[in-house]
Amino acid sequence: MISVAEARETILSRIHTLPAERVYLEDALGRYLAEDIIANMDIPLWDNSAMDGYAVRVADVTKVPTRLPVDQEIPAGAHPWALAQGSAARIMTGAALPEGSDAVVIREDTEEHGSAVVILRLPQKGDHIRFRGEDIKKGARVLTQGSLVGPAQIGVLASLRRARTLCHQRPLVAILSTGDEVVDLDEELSPGKIPSSNSYTLVSLVRELGATPLYLGIAHDTHAEIRDNLARAQRADLILTSGGVSMGDYDLVKEVMTSGQNTMAFWQVEMKPGKPLAFGSIGDIPIIGLPGNPASAMISFYQFARPAILKMLGARDILLPRVKARLKTPLRKKPDRPHYIRGMLESGQELSARISGPQGSGILTTMAHANCFIVIPKEKIVVEMNELVDCEVFGPLTAENSALIT
Length: 406
Ligand code: AMP
Ligand code: MG
Prior knowledge:
Elements: H1 4-13, E1 20-24, E2 37-38, E3 48-49, E4 53-56, E5 66-74, E6 88-91, E7 103-106, E8 110-113, E9 116-119, E10 129-130, E11 141-143, H2 151-159, E12 164-168, E13 172-178, E14 182-183, E15 194-195, H3 197-209, E16 212-219, H4 223-230, E17 238-242, H5 253-257, E18 263-267, E19 278-282, E20 285-290, H6 294-313, E21 322-327, E22 331-332, E23 339-346, E24 352-355, H7 365-368, E25 372-376, E26 382-383, E27 388-393, H8 399-404
Parallel strand pairs: 5-6, 13-16, 13-17, 14-15, 17-20, 21-24
Antiparallel strand pairs: 1-12, 2-11, 3-10, 4-6, 4-7, 5-9, 8-9, 18-19, 19-20, 21-27, 22-26, 23-24, 23-25, 25-27
Helix pairs in contact: 1-6, 3-6
């Protein structure tokens, strides 16, 4: 049986980053940059006032109070003239600084007398000025290839007047659930049947990463039905299936992967849960056969499908971030495989982690209450209270999560 790292390497070696395309800013959200962004201008473009007040020359205010005539008013958006010697300019936040001024005195530190102002506090050079280029210098590399485009990145691109930007294409990820027992939400839940939760978690996981899901529905456990459904994935960049990769008589996904032009590169990974995992290709499309058990399907998705999809999306960081945390629920396990335990990571003076509840591979609620996997190495048998453990973070650290666990 191969290790998680080996399995991931094998998968990633057969996954390629998708080509780039120019997209409008509004379509860039959730994609990954296919170019470095080099500033073609300074931001701010000119020195401007950070406050409402009076632009002055510091040399003109050597004592307080000092009375200065007001030679102009500068609202935001106006173009000022040079400040006359021995005078002040009334200026608003964001307005360009008049040439010759070197400080802004905030309104609260002045008394306004019609066409004159009395300065009540000694200014220092640079007070309340936002200098040209203090945020971004022309020529600087502001954003790097492979970064996720979020709202702040979009704002930076807009500041630089980049209406379009080069991003990687979104992969199309086909999803097929299998099982004679699983039915969709609009089908009757007759005896022996269960709702196909995997269909919905997998579509959501794919969409959350910024890829486009192509849901193929549910195939019964027959070779022909699985094969025919997968034939509808011809345009897909990756196929995910759930179920049908264990040892049972009706586990036929593996069989489909080993027939015709299809291939199976490996089956079974040394991990718990998530051992039944198959990887190969349907024609030339990579396929990850995820386990059917809902918690296993998600854990395997995070370990294998997520990095594959992120690689296709052109992301620089494709693995879940790992942190060390103090374990608050001591545990015991067999030295059989590495365990990926659904846990809750909590912030505090130091990070702590707790098991989020029962770990059966069919138990999905402990996944819903978790924000990390506590990873316990294969050989380890006992983990004591407060021992440092590795946690792979996939969800936000919230107080809400902790309230759900007793
Ligand atoms: P399998 O690997 O096909 O034997 O499935 C393992 C377990 O996962 C069985 O208990 C299945 O009923 C369950 N399962 C399979 N597919 C789904 C699905 N789409 N949604 C929820 N549970 C499923
Ligand atoms: Mg099945």
